[in-house]
Amino acid sequence: MKAFTQHLTFNTKETIEFVNVTEMIEKIVSESKVKEGLCLVSAMHITASVFINDEEEGLKNDFKKWLEEFAPSGKKYLHNLTGEDNAHAHLKRTIMGREVVLAITAGRLDFGPWEQVFYGEFDGRRPKKVLVKILGE
Amino acid sequence: MKAFTQHLTFNTKETIEFVNVTEMIEKIVSESKVKEGLCLVSAMHITASVFINDEEEGLKNDFKKWLEEFAPSGKKYLHNLTGEDNAHAHLKRTIMGREVVLAITAGRLDFGPWEQVFYGEFDGRRPKKVLVKILGE
Amino acid sequence: MKAFTQHLTFNTKETIEFVNVTEMIEKIVSESKVKEGLCLVSAMHITASVFINDEEEGLKNDFKKWLEEFAPSGKKYLHNLTGEDNAHAHLKRTIMGREVVLAITAGRLDFGPWEQVFYGEFDGRRPKKVLVKILGE
């Protein structure tokens, strides 16, 4: 059994931003030399997500608008009484998810035709980490 | 360490449909001969889900109605300017989730009393795949 | 390869309650003696969640209020025609998620600075189980 670990750091320009990390993950899978296994990709911060969806600009904007409707940044939250202003970002990340678990088959991500992995930032403009952990053989 | 991979194909009659796949997954776990391990079940398409909930007809309809409220199919989405009409399906799948990770203990799914695995289709009537990847011993 | 399994039982005082289980999971990881691996923590009941967020009282109350807005307990649901009154709890758990997959690196949970694991109960006051399954070496 092999285990392979990498920590990536992101520092987005926008407060809310989706970064396509598919190629980075593919590269890490290749470096791991794991042929059959599972690959966890998870946000290490609780106002960020890792999720799988479509690399299509319109849809990415639909997601941002939709999340703002369900967790408005301007609403009053108890969390923000602590001096924070990011309660909405905790809620948005919850809808989008913390992590994805990917299959590695024959040394590659075993993906459907449109699956792309994104880092979703909801309270950005500071360095934040993503964990990639591969287990297999 | 053993790895076992299967790809299932679904072609639902309805655009939005939940298919109980628990027995299929149990059969694959049994075929894998893995006694202790983890089993990833994930939708390979980004307008479909794999999730765990209850085999109860009323609740399944509650879910469909609830998802339609939060991601209405008739709303205007930027994604649909590309010629697609399935932006709502990408949002619905996001709420329901892409994947589940199941435990295998003593050769069987280590499940609670009501856990049932569903394939959730939100833009159906064409063939779509689900991945089952088992890692263990 | 090592596999390590534990089932925890929770019986919350409140119908809706979040229990911080981070220390329990850390203890199980330590007992497993797995140095490199993956750790699944999942709710075995379909009206409960396991999720990762912040140990901050205000935010926990924001979450509860927010979930009640999107899945009101007093609304009419088809599921409740079966004699149940917990349809809302199935929906709330869906937003918060069934499971988390954690990385174990150098014998410890490989966590970001604020990551805390919670058991989320949405239909409590009776015993319910959580599964912890560790795979690694």
Descriptive notes:
- The structure is a homotrimer.
- Chain A is α+β, with helices and mostly antiparallel strands and about 140 residues long.
- Chain A has one domain (about 1-75, about 85-135): Sandwich (Jelly Rolls), CATH 2.60.120.460.
- The first copy, chain A, is about 25% helix and about 35% strand.
- The first copy, chain A, is built from 3 helices and 8 strands.
- In chain A, strands 1-8-3-5-6 form a 5-stranded antiparallel β-sheet, with helices on one face. The first copy, chain A, has a 3-stranded antiparallel β-sheet with strand order 2-7-4.
- In chain A, a hairpin with a 2-residue loop joins strand 5 and strand 6 (about 110).
- The longest helix of chain A has 14 residues, at about 55-70.
- Chain A is elongated.
- The mean pLDDT of chain A is about 95.
- Chains in contact: A-B, A-C, B-C.
